[in-house]
Structures are given as structure tokens and as C-alpha cells.
Amino acid sequence: MANDKDIDPNRVSDQNMETSMRWLAWVRLLLAGAVLGSGYLAWVAIHQGPVAGCGPGSGCEKVLQSRWAYWLDIPVSIPALVVYLALLGATAMIQRRLSAEGQRGLWVGIIGLAVIVAGAAAWFVGLQMFVIEAFCKFCLTTHACGLAASVLCLRHVPLAADAQMSIWSSNPSMRGVPRKAMPGLAISGLAGVMVLVGGQLLVEKERNLVKVFPRPVTHTANPLPAAASAVEKGDVKAPPAPSPILPNSPNAQLVAPHLLSLYNRSFLLPLDDVPMIGPPGASNVIVNLFDYNCTHCRQLYPILVETQRRLGNELGIVCLPMPMDSRCNPFVPAKHPTFTNSCDYARLGLAVWRANRLAFPSFEERMFFSERLMPVDQAKAYAAQLVGTNNLESALTNQWIQQQILTACYLHYTNWQSTGGPAMPQLIIGEAISVGPLNSPNHLLVLLQKYLALMPKQR
Fold first, then answer.
1. What confidence category does residue 457 fall into, taking pLDDT thresholds of 50, 70 and 90?
2. Parallel, antiparallel, or unpaired: how do β-strands 426-429 and 285-290 relate?
3. In terms of domains, do 276 and 380 share one?
4. 230 pLDDT exceeds 50?
5. What is d(CA 387, CA 352) in angstroms, rounded to the nearest whole number?
């Protein structure tokens, strides 16, 4: 029987590495969960689809629609998926009979990746807690799986018996990671976390798409009467494929005092008869198409208000409710759970404006500035409080509301043909169409300067 002093410590370390591997099953299971979670979120981001079980105003939607859901110009779930897969692949190789140098190199990678995963989890949970002030259940589950797997990996790092050996040692009998190398490896992982944090802090992704159509061409017949008939009959079908002929430029311009022309007079909006932010007599007018259920639309509203305040009489913003709800929109192919009751919200907003224009800003502020969108019955009660129950009911039966919704739907559909997609919100700025959220009033001011040569007033 050998004495303790005759036992090779490196051989013991090697045996421990080969035999004490039950923790690896948990690591792989947790990383598989993280891969599934990040993969699902990446798929949702790429396809711009809804997240299962997360409706309008939910924590998931707030987190995933925020600027923090992106790193540089890509959804952050994509690099997360790559890191999780890399760590899962590295842990899958641990039990293979590698050389001492190869085994050590593998653990160098695992340590760096584990620190990145743990640091990223802390960063994103902190953002949700202190900045976004909302939580995404899919994100938290993914981060929890990644963090737990990282902690297990770091706890089971095999340390070399010789603390002074070089991490690059090629001695086949010297296995494990030298203790003195651990701080450096941790710092390298933290450097990866800093790349993530720096990319998000320094580069804010522009999540809107702008298309410009400077040359109007001949337009097709206006299908608005047919659309109205379809709604009345309940015959709501999917829109046809976009025309191969480029639709007209939106070419939004004032063709008379208080009269805005769009698409070469296909749409004429009397500015005294449509909801607006700012005066009907503004020297420049843009159009905002929105859905009350749309989170990005709700985030855009305070940006519009602040921008108009800065520009004063230089800017007016037509605000047209455009419900993505097949019950009143003949161009939406199917009812989508995200936009349930959008038709009712649109009718309420237009009814308040019709009944009492002075009360309309209060209604909009309540709808857009509340943390969560009010249920329809509460919104209706608030509208009745603002304008009176009888006035509200009378306004709701006015045919102007239905016609206004149909006009907005057809305008959205025309933009859809031009831009190739139905995403919301949509801003028509001269010959340009901006689709998607804006980051700030300054972001909108850049667009106004570029496409309308508008500048904020000097203070």
C-alpha cells in the first residue's frame, strides 16, 4: 500500500476531473434551458412577432421593445445564444481524454465564458429592476439558467497542484489551472461584459426604418369605398400582395390653408376636422398613424408632444388612430391578440375629439402616459367623465368616426405597399415614411431637419 507522500498530486487532480462529473449534468441541463430561452427570444426579435403570454403593456413587451434589447444593431439575444452555445459545447468536451495542455485551454475558455454569462445576467437583471422597471419572464428564466450554470462551472475549476506553474505549460503531467492565473482569466471575462455594456450605452440602435419616395408616379384607383363595403358586410380579407408598381410618394404638403394633401391628392385632410398636436395653421404638418394598443406608438406620443412644443407654430402633427384590428380594418388579414379592442379604443379617441376638442389632450395623455393601457370600459368611463355621457354616446354613433377610421386604414395600407410592411407607428414626413419607434425628440428633430428642413427655435 502506497504512502500518502508517494501519491502523485497531479494524478489525484486528474482522477477528480475524470470522476467527479455529476455537476456537469446540471450544467448542461441549465445551459440547454438558456439556449432554448435565448433562441426563442432571438426568433421573436428577428420575426418581430409577439411573445407568448405577453400582451400590450406587459413586462415582457416593455423589456423586449426597449433600447436595451439590442446590442449595437442586433437583438442582444443573438450574441447571448452564441455565448450559451459556446459554453455548452465547451462543457461537453470536458470528459474527453485531452492532453493536459488541451484540458487547461478548455477550462480557460469555460472560465472566461462563465464570467461573461454571470456578468451579463447581473447587468440585464439590473436594467430591468432599476432602468426599465419591468420584468420579462423569459429573460429572467434564461438569465437564471445561465447564471446557475456559470456558478457551477466556476466552483468546479480544477486547480493545478503547482500554484506557480505557467498557464501555458506544455508538461503532459501538469494538469489543472494555476491559481495565480484565475484573476487574469476573470478580468478577461469581465472585459467581455464591458464590451456588452459599452456597446449598449454608447450606441443606441435606431429602431425605425425610413423610406423616401421623391418621385410621384401614377397611382391606382382608391379602394376606400370597397373597403367600407367590406367592413359593413363583415367580409374582411387579407390584403393583396403589394403592387409591383411603386405607389406614389406620400408627398405630404399643404395645398391650401389648413388642407393637407397626401399621395398626390389621393388623401385630402382638412386640418380643422382631424385630431392634431399643435395648431391647424402650422406651416409644416406631418402625420402620425398609431394604434392605442401598440407599445411603440405609446412611447412615441410624448416624443411628438415635446418636439411640437419645441417647434411651436412651425409644426403640426395629425394624429390618426389606425387600429390593427380586423373587426374594423379591412386590410388586416386576421385578428391578432395584441390588438384586441383596438377598434373600440380608436372610436373612443375620435369620439372624445368630436365631442369636445379641448378635452382631447387630457384623454390622450391618460391613454399614452399611463403605465398600462386602461381596459376599454375604464377608458370609456374616463371619456364620459371628460365630455359627458350623452355627448360621448352621440359622438360614437356619428358616421364620421367610421369614415375616419377607414381613411386611416387605407392610408396605412398605402404606406404598407410603399414600405413593404405594416409595422407601427408610422410617420409621414414630406416625401418620407418612418416606420417603427423613435429614440427621443432629438431623433425626430433630425428627421424633420432632413426631410422638411425644420430646425428647433433658438432659445
1. low
2. antiparallel
3. yes
4. no
5. 7
Compute the distance between CA of residue 161 and CA of residue 170 in angstroms, rounded to an integer. 15
Q: Hey, what amino acid is at 366? A: R
Q: Is the separation of the CB atoms in 399 and 231 below 8 Å?
A: no
Q: Is residue 354 part of a domain?
A: yes
Of 451, 406, 357, the closest CA to residue 226 belongs to 406
**Residue 343 sits in the same domain as residue 368:** yes
How far is it, in rounded angstroms, from Cα 388 to Cα 332?
Answer: 33
Rounded to whole angstroms, the Cα distance separating 290 from 280 reads 19
Q: What is the CATH number of the domain that holds 98?
A: 1.20.1440.130
Residues 155 and 234 in one domain: no
Q: What is the pTM of this model?
A: 0.73
**pLDDT above 70 coverage of the chain, percent:** 84
Task: Identify each DSSP E strand in 151-256 by its residue range.
Answer: 209-212, 253-256
- CA–CA separation, 203 vs 71, rounded Å? 8
Neighbours of 123 (CB within 10 A): 17
Instruction: Tell me the pLDDT of the chain averaged across its residues.
Output: 86
| Bridge partners of residue 204, in order along the sequence | none
pLDDT at residue 359, rounded to an integer: 96
Q: Are residues 172 and 280 in the same domain?
A: no
Cβ burial 374-399 (10 Å sphere, 16+ → b, else e): bebeebbebbbebbeeebbeebbeee
In a domain, 440, yes or no: yes
Residues 189 and 257 in one domain: no
State the chain's maximal CA–CA distance in angstroms: 105
Query: Looking at the chain, how many residues does it have?
Result: 459
- Helix, strand, coil % over all residues of the chain, rounded to 5: 55, 10, 35
Q: Quick one: cell of 343? A: 377598434
Number of domains in the chain: 2
Do 146 and 227 have their domain in common?
Answer: no
Does residue 177 sit in the same domain as residue 236? no
Is 356 among the domain residues? yes
Q: Where are the alpha helices (DSSP H) in 59-181?
A: 59-64, 77-92, 100-126, 137-155
SS3 (DSSP) at 428: strand
Pairing assessment for the beta strands 259-262 and 267-270 based on DSSP bridges: antiparallel
φ/ψ of residue 391, rounded to 5: -65, -40
Q: What is the CATH number of the domain that holds 250?
A: 3.40.30.10
* Residues 57-73: tens digit of each pLDDT: 678 878 987 889 999 88
Rg, C-alpha atoms of the chain: 29
Taking 50 as the threshold, does the pLDDT of residue 221 lie above it? no
Instruction: Return d(Cα 59, Cα 64) in angstroms, integer.
Output: 9
Q: List, in sequence order, the alpha helices (H) in 203-334.
A: 224-233, 295-311
The whole domain housing 192 covers: 9-202
CA 305 centroid distance within chain = 21
> Do 192 and 222 share a domain, yes or no?
no
